[in-house]
Amino acid sequence: MGKYGEAAVRSVVLLNTGITHDPVLAWETITREIFGEGTSSQKKGCPKGTFLGICESGCC
Prior knowledge:
By secondary structure, the chain is an all-alpha fold. It has helices at residues 3-16, 23-35, 40-43, 45-56. The chain has four helices and no strands.
């Protein structure tokens, strides 16, 4: 699994355990841990948009 896949899985864990109920916050928290705060990899829009779209569809 790639780093963005890992970020998605770990973000869902935050959501499912009730640590946060906000998918955006979960994504930001985990990508900060994986990539570092403010890096281009953390800011990349396509993986974040895909994750949020999946969450919006009710799959998270």
